[in-house]
Amino acid sequence: MSRSFLPALRQYFRRSAAPQPPATSAPPSGTQQKLRERLITRTLYRMNEDIGTWRTALRQAENREYPSRRDLARVYQEILLDAHLTALVQNRQQAVLGHAFALCNTTGQPQPEATRLLETVWFDQLVGAVLDVRLEGYVLVELGLDARGRVADAQKIPMQYVEPHSGTLLREGHLGGERIPYRGVEAYAHTLMEVGAADDLGLLFKAAPHVLWKRSASKFWAEYCQLYGMPVAIAKTNAYDSTRKDMLDKLLSDMRAAYHIVMDREEDLQFLETGKSDGSPVYDKLIGRCNSELSKLILGQTMTTDDGSSLAQAQVHQRVADSLVQADLRLVERVVNNQLLPRLQQLGYALDGLHFCYLHNEALSPDLLLQLLQYYEVDADYLSGRFGVPLASSSRGDI
After folding, report:
1. Which of 164, 227, 239, 386 is at 20 to 30 A from 31, Cα to Cα?
2. Is the CB of residue 235 less than 8 Å from the CB of residue 268?
3. How far apart are CA 344 and CA 350, in angstroms?
């Protein structure tokens, strides 16, 4: 083989080894096939995540040449098993999912008949997917249509398949496979909704190290309890027979599971309490610190989920949490008004002149209500609904 051929051969293998931009697949024409049905579903296997895998996933997600969020999705999937983080996310999202809403006309009057079009399971799915943008940074939601062309469901496409910078889907969920373009494609214009920013990795990216540190602390604390939480059993015997000593050793091992042991009268059993100082506060404080950091990250404060020191501080923390909920409500309103309603109109829904809004009815405090009763007449039905007490007619007349 000539020397002049070697550089060309090296260049060939270097070009073959480098990741090549995969071919794209055009959407099928004349069909209502869902975009997510074109994906090849593969199991996102769970792994033992740590700070190293988290940083590796971060580098892959931020890689501009060949970005991939598959490993980041695996990290997010794992940390959402944490009970405290799950409770925080539910606390924030349920405040929006349980909030009253309506479709209103141009004068701001709710339209009950039109509002019933959104009182469906698929709309709750949509709102939940929109709220997930706070956690993941970017979500792609697809509206599923039934045979009549009506919306039947709203599903979030898993983040490991989505490449938001290029507007394509990784059909097999990894680089090197076929890509499916979705941005600017007419076939999906009425059913796809993009929410969030392509560069945003969400709150879960910042929550991951705290969950991983807490998991490690819990593991080491469990090992500490196993080593130092139980007294050491000491068996004394006068026997010189190694067989008898081996038997005693087995009896002590079995005693850990059965909590009893049978010995000869000449033998003695003692328990030696460990003299080591209690190391539990070290692990407990680390876990508590991680939990408080997660509370601040998701809810902006700690006292609505942890113990508080005073009512005044608790009220301040509650106002902080309420401000985040208000921001989430505004996010959902913008997405529904700017993206969902125009798509529903294109699908044939009669929604002309209507807009979506959450209802903000501030209830009167009992003290203020008593002051109003001195000067105004208050309807008995309102009082009954406000306080849940049935009111009978009064001989003194109306209230």
Report:
1. 164
2. yes
3. 8
pTM reported for the whole predicted model = 0.74
Spell out the domain ranges in the chain. Answer: 21-229+279-361, 230-273, 366-399
Report the distance separating Cα 148 and Cα 76, nearest Å: 37
Decide if 125 contacts 155 (C-beta within 8 A). Answer: yes
Residue in the block written with tokens 């214009």? 189
Encoded tokens for 361: 């009815």
Q: How many residues does the chain have?
A: 399
Q: What is the mean pLDDT of each run of 10 residues along the chain (399 residues)?
A: 51 45 46 78 86 93 89 94 94 91 91 93 95 95 91 93 92 85 90 94 95 92 76 69 76 65 62 65 90 90 63 65 88 95 92 91 67 75 65 56
Inter-residue contact 263 to 251 (CB < 8 Å): yes
- Asked whether the CA dihedral 67, 69, 71, 72 is positive or negative, the reply is positive
Collapsed DSSP state (helix, strand, coil) of residue 74: helix
Q: Are 233 and 255 in contact (CB under 8 A)?
A: yes
